[in-house]
Amino acid sequence: MCRLFAITSEQPQSPMVAIRAMDVMREGHDGSGVGLFLRDLAGPFEDMKDAPILSGIFTEKGLKRLDMFMMDVGFMTKYKITIKVPKTPPPGVPKRDVYLIRAYEYPEEWEDFSQAELYRRLLDIRLQLRKMGEEEDDMIVFSFWPDVIMIKEIGDPYTVAEYLNLDRNELMARVIMAQGRQNTNYAINLYACHPFFIQGYSTMTNGENTAFIPIREYLLSRGFPGYSGYQSDSEVFTHILHYTFTQLGLDIESYKHIITPLKDEDLDRHADAQTLKYLKQSCRQLIIDGPNCVIGCLPDHSLFMVQDRKKLRPGVVGGRPGKYAFSSEICGLDAAIPDRDKSTDFQPMHLDTVLVGPNRQEIKRCCQTDPLSLPH
Amino acid sequence: MLPDRPIVPSTLSVKDLPWQISWSKDKCTLCGKCTAVCPVHAIELGVFRKRIVRTSLDPKDPPVNQYDVYHGIRQKTDPAYACVGCATCTMVCPNDAITPLHGDEADKLRFHIDRGGQPRRRGGRRNIAGGVLDRIKFLRISMLTDPALDAGRHEFELKTLLGRILPPEENLKFIRENGWIPPVREIYPLIIGGMSFGALSPNMWEGLQMGVAYLNEELGMPVRISTGEGGCPPRLLRSRFLKYVILQIASGYFGWDEIIHAIPEMTEDPCAIEIKYGQGAKPGDGGLLMWHKVNKLIAAIRGVPAGVSLPSPPTHQTKYSIEESVAKMIQSMSMAWGFRVPVYPKISATSTALAVLNNLTRNPFAAGLSIDGEDGGTGAAYNVSMNHMGHPIATNIRDCYLNLVQVGMQNEIPLFAGGGVGKNGNLAANAAALIMLGASGVQTGKYVMQAAAGCLGSESDRCNICNIGACPKGITSQDPRLYRRLDVEKVAERVVDMFLGFDIELKKIVAPLGRSTSLPIGMSDALGIGDHHAAERLSIKYVV
Fold first, then answer.
1. Is B220 in CB contact (< 8 Å) with chain A?
2. Is A375 a member of any domain?
3. Best interface-test mutation with B: which of A194, A282, A306, A307 has the largest number of B CBs within 10 A?
4. B155 touches chain A (CB under 8 A)
5. Within this chain, do residues A193 and A67 fall inside the same structural domain, yes or no?
6. CATH number of B132-453+487-542
């Protein structure tokens, strides 16, 4: 079972906060990989919030192909982080040519695009790069989005972090998500590594998604180009979140109603019974059957956690105004925010969605049986 | 055989028949129950002459012949009276003195059962054991990262949907704009398939309805039953129990005069309307209720004269084409109930099923598609139709589901699979396999007859005389002397037992796969089979 950790803080944090939390939870992951998602960036990226940042791993040849491609589209490099690594990687970590984190200037002709069009094109570029990389095995692309950096690598999280020297100013961020991988189901493939990202939405999960195949088939048949990949059964959680917000125009409360709808008896008693019943029926193919704990980040920088219908996975959230963390285990939370009122720690149960908004002042809890705040 | 008995081409010996009566002279009390009960009069009282040669040790006394007679059972060899192997004689025999045994080689009767140029007709089943459904295994047991679910402890929600389900975008839009949202029923995924009032005896029908009502009202299981084509008793049409009933209309429109006239007096809408275009057991043949079974009651409910055979035409003759037929009938049936009742077609499995399905995807009123495979049963059909016509259900349902996946409508048009589900007794396993291949639910008829009423049919051509109304169990007879053998309450009780047993078995299948909160429709990664070609064809795993 993988281990998850996420933190949101007014003060920018080093990714090592998450890595250290992951390290104390090492009984729960096997050191086979780590994934990091950084958002609301500080350091040099503070002043370029709108510039799309490309994160990925490239070979020398891949980098050349990337440069050609990006120049053809009209992107200019605005800023880049150079990760210099020792010549020999530690045991269990593969040798790579380039860990790329690069912010770009938009092409001139993109300036008049609407936001929707811009987002569509950014996704399109990422998918094209991924496809190019898969053809020649020379690029792996994690994200291409403003104010977002993603780093993924095979190996023990702490070892990888030290090897990549992640404790650096340039990587300070106010929102950090990390997953320590337990490689059980699938061959090690960085595209199967959490967190997953699509157009501003990111999630990571632990557990196994037993309804993966019907969900994957449903998403693939939506005709949306980004709903692809699925090297991991957990990637669908990110895409369902994206679908909930962007295609259905719903919110985070409804996400829980889509992936783990209420039982019919409970639905009948709900204030929005009719709407929820229709939602349950029409999104039947998106019902997950657990056991899963999902932690995710929304475009407005909110962090959230939801549990499966039976609450078969651990998960806790705690902190203090200005700094909150989500963790698979309490020891991870203790490592990151020891100076908090532990009596306010909260372990979301099967009906709960917990959310820490962009102002980071409180843990908001919505129970699935509460009335929806949707416009009726 | 007497020496002067003429031999004609159709003269058969007992050995030539499929079933031979084994009778024990020692045990028989000559009570006559077996000959009285035999539904096909295959046995009669036999008077046997017997010579006994008496010899003496004294050479002076010559051996003498002594002639005697004894009474017993004689099996008729006339093809019209061939034993059907139902073994009702065994059931009634107080001393277990008689039983039919299956011949050890292929019978010769089959070559002579077309007297008067009329090929064999029968009821029942296809008489081919085995089948791909029984060979499918459930492989994807959650072992590594999951605590396995507990079939007895965790909550399960194994309902399915019958009705046209809008895509979520449209559904939300229609909620906002107060648009028409098609009716959708949340039902149990095992439906009692269409067996008409007429094909079934009144006791059987009543027992099924009582069982279904109990399951719904006392146990909270939303089980539904299709009427088959034969109308619906007027009192049921006007009762609250109608909501558990799927009314079937087929090409004979039998009983629909009564149904249409009852609409203004209905207190509940029916669960759905099923338009039957084909039946898996006998594709291309319409329904058939032979005259033996058309008594006054059946005639009244169906709106026909008594004592005449009631063949439904193979096609809906008022329509020009299947496309038009499907579209118009769905439309008019929807309209009859104010668009509050799901209307869906039922077709026999066929290599053209995809064409029908594609029509339905473009018809916003189509509430689903029911497909009936070749292993389905029937009350009456030509032997050749039952044995040789039809399409297996597994590939048909899989192709249709994958086709829906391709157009992204897998949640919009639920597919229901029937035809041989549980034919070898593995009801839950067969149902789960079909669901994971893509069916939203399954329909079964024969299994219900066997489990709830003790139907004697097997896959070895046993009994199969549903067509002539002589059912020895009283299940498919309209003769009160026969159907009074069936205790209505006991049938209802068995229906309940059967569904509860099925429910536990279904949970025992889905729980280890880590599924409990939704029916695993299309969860094909859970399936495997030890036949490479079958695996490839069904897009499931090949395992040995």
1. no
2. no
3. A282
4. yes
5. no
6. 3.20.20.70
**Same domain for A19 and A137:** no
Same domain, A30 and A65: no
Rounded to a whole number of angstroms, the distance from the CA of B509 to the nearest CA of chain A is 14
Residue A1: its pLDDT value, please?
67
What is d(CA B521, CA A283) in angstroms, rounded to the nearest whole number? Answer: 13
The answer to whether residues B522 and A219 touch, using CB atoms and an 8 Å cutoff, is no
Q: What is d(CA A98, CA A101) in angstroms, rounded to the nearest whole number? A: 9
At residue B69, what is the residue type?
Answer: V
Beta strands in A276-344 (DSSP E): 292-297, 303-307, 316-320, 323-327
Nearest chain A Cα distance for residue B167, angstroms? 6
* A248–B172 C-beta distance less than 8 A: yes
Model pLDDT for residues B461-472, shown as the tens digit of each residue:
999 999 999 999
- Counting Cα atoms < 13 Å in the Cβ hemisphere of B366 gives 24
Last residue of a domain, one of A85, A112, A143: A143
Gap from A309 CA to chain B (nearest CA, Å): 8
Of B167, B184, B514, the CB nearest to A289: B514
Shared-domain flag, residues A211 and A289:
yes
Residues A228 and A245 in one domain: yes
Same domain, A85 and A22: no
Statement to judge: residues A78 and A171 lie in one domain: no
| Number of compact structural domains in chain A | 2
At the top level of CATH, which class does the domain B14-118 belong to?
alpha beta
Does residue B207 contact residue B492 with C-beta atoms inside 8 Å?
yes
Contact flag A281-B161 (C-beta cutoff 8 Å): yes
Q: Tell me the pLDDT of chain A (376 aa) as tens digits.
A: 689 999 999 999 999 999 999 999 988 777 788 999 999 999 999 999 999 999 999 999 999 999 999 999 999 999 999 898 999 999 889 999 999 999 999 999 999 999 999 999 999 999 999 999 999 999 999 999 999 999 999 999 999 999 999 999 999 999 999 998 776 554 578 898 999 999 999 999 988 899 999 999 999 999 999 999 999 999 999 999 999 999 999 999 999 999 999 999 999 999 999 999 999 999 999 999 878 999 999 999 999 999 999 888 899 999 999 999 999 999 999 999 999 999 999 999 999 999 999 999 999 999 999 998 865 4
A210/B140 touch (CB, cutoff 8 Å), yes or no: yes
**Among the partner residues B168, B184, B405, nearest to A279 by beta-carbon distance:** B168
* Best to test chain B binding among A181, A206, A212, A213 (most B CBs inside 10 Å): A213
Q: What is the DSSP string of B400-446?
A: HHHHHHHHT-TTTS-EEEESSTTTTS-HHHHHHHHHHHT-SEEEESH
Beta carbons of B162 and B187 less than 8 angstroms apart: yes
Between B161, B167, B522, which is nearest A214 by CB? B522
**What is the per-residue pLDDT across B329-369, written as a single tens digit (0 to 9) for each?**
999 999 999 999 999 999 999 999 999 999 999 999 999 99
**CB of B165 less than 8 A from some CB of A:** yes
Domain of A114, in residue numbers: 56-143
Residue A239 counted as domain residue: yes
CA B521 to chain centre: 23
B173 to chain A: nearest residue by CA? A248
> In whole numbers, what is the pLDDT of chain B averaged over residues?
93
